[in-house]
Structures are given as C-alpha cells and as structure tokens.
Acyl-homoserine-lactone acylase
Amino acid sequence: MKLLSTVMALALTFTPVGTPVVPAPAGRYTAEIRRTEYGIPHVTAKDHGGLGFGYGYAFAQDNLCVLASWVITLRGERSRTFGPEARSDDPVRPVDNLTSDVYYRSVADSGVIRRVLAQPPPVGPTAELRELVDGYVAGYNRYLEDTGVANLPDPTCRGRSWVGPITAADLWANLLDLNRMAGSSGLKEAIVGGEEPEGPAPAPGSNAWALGRQATRDGHGMLLADPHFPWNGIRRFYQVQLTIPGVLDVSGGSLYGTPVVQIGHNARVAWTHTVSHAHRFTLYRLRLAGDGAYLVDGRAEPMGRQRIEVPLKDGTLTDRTLYTSRYGPVLAEGRSDEYAYAFADANAANLRAADEWLAMAKAGDLAELRAAQDTFQGLPFVYTLATDVSGTATFADASVVPHVSDDRARRCAVPAPDPSLEAFTLDGSTSACLWGRDRDAVVPGLFGPGSQPRLTRADYVANSNNTPWMTNPAAPLTTYGQVWGATRTDVETRPRVSLDMIARRLSGTDGLGAPGFTLPTLQASAQAKRNYTFELLRSDVAALCRDHPRATASDGRRVDLRQACRTLTAWNGRATLDGQGAILWREFYTGLQRPVRPGEPAQPWWRVPFDPEQPLTTPRGLDRDDPAVRRALADAVQRFQAGGIPLTLTPGQAQHYSSLPVPGCTEFEGCFDRVRTGDPLGADGRYPEVDTGSSFMMAVELTPAGPRTRTILTYSLSANPSSPHHTDQTTLFARGQWVTERFTEAEIAADPRLRVTTVRG
C-alpha cells in the first residue's frame, strides 16, 4: 500500500495535460555555488529553475568546451565545422562527421523530441524537469556571456567561431541521445550508411554493491558505485551536489550536459547503476513489395522517406535519402531485392530517464525509489542497485526493454543481416510479431515493472555487468526470459572477483580485519587492484615455468623463459603502480586469447571448463601441457626483448592519463576497478592513454546521523587542461586515495578552501 500511495503522490505532481511551461522572466534565476576541495560545486537555489541555472553556470566554468563541441554534433554541423572525414567527438562509438551529421539531422527531422515534449507526464517531462533544463541552458549561456568566447579559460575552444549559446532543444537532444546510447545512437553507420568505426568501442561497464545490515559491521546500509565510463568527452561524470531546501538534496555523479544526478545519494537513500544485459532493440525483416513498400499481413505499406541535407566545410551541400517503417528506421545495410531490415529501438522516444533520476533523488526510502522507477519507467540501459538507512539492499533491472517473450522470439525468428548483432531479428511481415504489451507499462511495447528481475536482501546484491542470475549466489535469479539476459552461463572473471571480494570480507579472510564491511574496508576492497586471472592460474604458471624453462615462439625461435618466470612468480598479483609482472601477465594472457591461425577461433586452454553447477569456481586452471600456452608466453617474452622493454614493466610505467601514471588492469584479466587503453602495448613500453575505466567511485554509509561518503573522480572535475582541477583527483586515484565528501551545511562551511559565488540571470 505504501508503494501504491507513493506512485499516486508522484503522479499528482505532474503538469496537467495542456498546461504550458511559462518561460522564466528576466532576473528570475538566482543560485549560490559553493566550491569545496577539488573544485566540487554545491549548488543551492529556491526552485528548480534556479538550481538548473546555478548548475549550468558551474558546469560551464569547468567544461564548457566539451558541451560546446557536442552541441555541434547534436545539431549535425560537424561536417561544416570540422570537415566530413574527421572523426566525431562521440566518446563511445565515434564515426566520421558526415555519418554523424546525417544521423543527428535525421533525428531532428523526425520530430520525435517535439512530439514527446507535447505529451503529459510521465511520457513527457514534468514541469520541474522543464524548469531544470531551461535554467541549465540559461546558466551556461550566462557564463559564456559573462566570460566571452575570446576569454574562455580552456584553450581547447577559446576564440573558436563554433562556440555559442545553447538552447533547450540541444539539452533535450542530449538527453535523448544518452538514452539511445545502447541502441540507434550506437549503430549510426548501420542506420544511415557509412564506414564502421575502426577498432573496438570503449564499452561502458560498471561495478556495484548494495550492502544490507547483515553485511555491514554496524548494521547500516552501504553502497559502492564504480561506473566504468569514458574518460573523455560528453559521457564523463561531473561531481555535484544539488539542493533546494526542503525539496531536494542530492550529491553524486552527473553525466555531462544533463541537469540531474545519475549515481548518488541523499540523506537516506543511495543508488548506483551498471550496464544491463537486457536487449534495447530488435530488428524486423521487411518483405519488400516494390515501389518503396513492404508487406504487413499481406498489405503493402509505403516506406517513409527522409531527404537529409548536410552542409560541408567548403560551402557545398551533400544529401542522403533515408527510409523509415512502422518499426523504425530502415537499415542502410543488409538490403536485398527481397528483404530489408528495420531497427526498432525501445528508447527511440524516451525522455523519461531524467525525470526518473530526479524523483529517485527525492526518495526517502527504497519504497519511494521503486515508486519513482515504476512511475517513469525510463532508465535506458542500466540495472539499479540501492540501499537505504534501514539497511535493506535491492537490485532491479528497471530498464527499458522491448516486450519480446521467449515464445515470440522463437516463433518470429528470421535470419539476421549481421550475425554479430546481439539482437532478436523478427518477422516484420506479420503484426503477430509486434512487441507485446504489459498493463503496467507506461509505453506500449515495453515490459512493465511487474515483469522485471528484482531481488531484495538484508545481506547484499552485486553486479559487475553480469546477467541478473548471480546477483547474490545464495538466491540465483532464474525466472526471467532471454531478453533480459542468459542464465547458467559463464559468469566471467570480473563478476567472479567481485563476488569473491564480498565473500572474503564477510568471512574476514581478506586480510582487512574482522568480518563485515566498514567504510574503510569498503574503500580498501574497491581499490585492491586484484588480477583474478593471475590468482586463478598462478600455481599452474609456476609449474609450467619449472617444467619448461624454454619454449618455442610462433616464429619457431626458442625463447628463454626463466627471467619472465622469476618476474611472474615474484609478483603479488596486484596491478598497483609498482606491480612488476602486471604488464607481462597482461601480454601473456592476451596471447592466450589469440587463435593459432588468423581467422580461426581461439582454442580453449582452461584445464577445468565452465560448469553451471559451479559458476563461481569454473572455469579454472591452465592446461599447461598445451603447446599453445607455452607459445603464448614465449611470444610475449619475445616482444618485450625485441623492443628492449623490461619484463618487470609496471602499470605506472606503461599506463597514463594526461602524463600521470595510472594503476589497474583490464576487464578480460578479471580486474574489478578496470582500465582500458584501446590499443596494444607500443614499442616504447607504453599503452595509448587510458580512455575508459573506473570513473566516479563512491562509497557511502547511511547512518541515522547522516551519510558518510568517500568519492574519487578518477579523471578529475575539469576537462580544461589549464584548470587546477584537471588532474588533481587523478593524482589521488593513482595513490589509492579518496575525497571525504562534504554533504551537510556544517561540513561544507568548515572547508577552509570554501569559495562562494551567487549567480543571477
């Protein structure tokens, strides 16, 4: 009953149908920006418009150039500004500027944002969110007006002709694009035509623990947030506290260009997200009927046409014609005389997420947080893990998921145009294969809250981008359909090390003292830098070294392994700055994944294969009798020797960000707080700059007296290379240090470095 009443209360706060949002009169906006250590802003205002104004102003002080460049992207003006062949500034999946411009102009031309803005809540935005967006835009523009383009502190865009005011339409476009990130926005080249991006994309990931009263030493709810998002560009987190006295008081990480906190806490609730395994889109195979039409239930339906014009840097125009269907855009790829394929994106018209995060930030307990999620149903591609002051922990895949039952997926399955696309491909020639409906879904075609995988516990829930199955091994989730992710499949090494870390802390066998989590042991666990694959294979590598001091490399040469073996056996398995052996292990382990011959699949080398009855202890062991294993080690040693690279190369020597050394290891090595550099080790013994990994880390303990929180923004607050806050927290991160959050008025006022600014507009 409490959940139902909370949902009704949320619904009553919505703007009634047809109620216009009145523009703020001149001089309406007032906000106070207080900056504490590391430049962290605490923004206070009397209303949502003023709060947005203060936030937009503060963000522009630190990161105006990033958003200014992204606005050029969202407007489809990169080809005119930077040339059509240059790469876009999309940090997740960059494409050439022409492909980017065609895609974003097609989105604008479709009118989707205009249609959603005309809807009442919860499908359309609430009055509060509209005020936040308008205020944010006004605050950004006010800072730009006060400072002037020629005087911007960031040399990246100082004096550039493409820097100018932004509009509310730009911010709504950014919110929509964020929600489409796991769908159409990530497949621009397939939709509009264009070359595929080179190399693997820096896929966002995350770790998250919500700890209940049975898992913590003092019985308090605790949370660990560790999102793995890009370190550059518009998908970085910005650390901020947003306060409207008596209405809202939330602190945490907010993605660039959004006026809400996505991962954070208030006085009584803390939450975080990880990227979900659930599907975000399906493909529909269209049976073509000639003359630009396709068949549905035996009747011809005409395709829609979009003629997109893109201005180029030389002053000319180029154009491209795109096609649409009842399901969504028709892919430029995979078309034949008989068939074409349409892309159905569950987030195609989703602007609900920002309202959901705003409502979550106001929740007083987990029931109210769930009510916020059930009301808006807008989280685009993430799981939610949360806890509250009562010491209850909860997990939910409350994300936007197309309603495709297992039966429908089997019955409607047709061949895919590209087997590498992890999506259902359904028969578009019959309406029987349309997405299903749930009565509790706010948008037709999506699963409603009653169908979502959920688990609430007094001990813990955890996720490291694994499917819901092993959220807590004591209570496996198994009743959800394929569209939510698989069950009884390899858990993979990063989720395994995460669950192992929790188990060792609860048993007190991790060397951190008595059983149960405290805030210091939560921090220590999160930054332990364990390399789980090395731990699993350490004894086998030692045996291999004893039995085979020399091995044959791929080129047929014999390689002496003894020094490499001494380095690996002496290493403690931690990817710290000074971890001698960490990089050698990575290169060896990478070699194990390579096929013996190009084009062939890699051969299994685990001694014990995965067993669904033992998901946390399999696979394990190294098949050291396999010649391919010895060859992989010989190849790694040979590459080091050929480049004159010491076998004792450390993460601090090989990994960097803005010239600073960075600790950590990679996803596939089984590292919890992982980093990614994108390309192989260079001949100079250095990887390219870190581009993805642990980003905004937050450890929270919710006590009756208020939250105790430690944070670290790994790449720091400002993208401006001349800012004092460009790498100050990065230095802390490299040393394994954290920032003590200032949340209460007394904590903020006590900062000797406090700077206070009042802004009006």
User: Anything to note?
Assistant: The first strand starts at residue 30 and ends at 35. Residues 1-24 have pLDDT under 50 and may be disordered. The domain at 532-671 is CATH 1.10.1400.10 (Penicillin amidase (Acylase) alpha subunit, N-terminal domain). Residues 498 and 672 are 6 Å apart (CA to CA).
